[in-house]
Amino acid sequence: xxxxxxxxxxxxxxxxxxxxxxxxxxxxxxxxxxxxxxxxxxxxxxxxxxxxxxxxxxxxxxxxxxxxxxxxxxxxxxxxxxxxxxxxxxxxxxxxxxxxxxxxxxxxxxxxxxxxx
Length: 117
What we know:
This protein is 36% helix and 13% strand. It is of the alpha+beta class. It has a four-stranded mixed sheet, with helices on one face. The longest helix is centred in the N-terminal third of the chain and has 12 residues, at 13-24. It is globular, with a radius of gyration of 14 Å.
């Protein structure tokens, strides 16, 4: 079976629900508590590639840091947005489930079921 990695925030109800869905199916993903151990820019770029989305699409636009850092500015590059998420990991949408070369954002939590092997 493909290894599963869950970018998880235990304080987030959606993240907890996604983890519960996996556990209910007898699956135990590797948990990455990304707020405690933020991904590197390279790791986040790889996750974005597996998700098939841009950095802007992974940003949590309701966070204060999003407004404070003026991340809505259209001229910001992909690298600049990734750097902002690495420096301020609460800007990363969660949860993210990775299964091999595929990934999905668990919003709603049931999305994680789409990529299970």
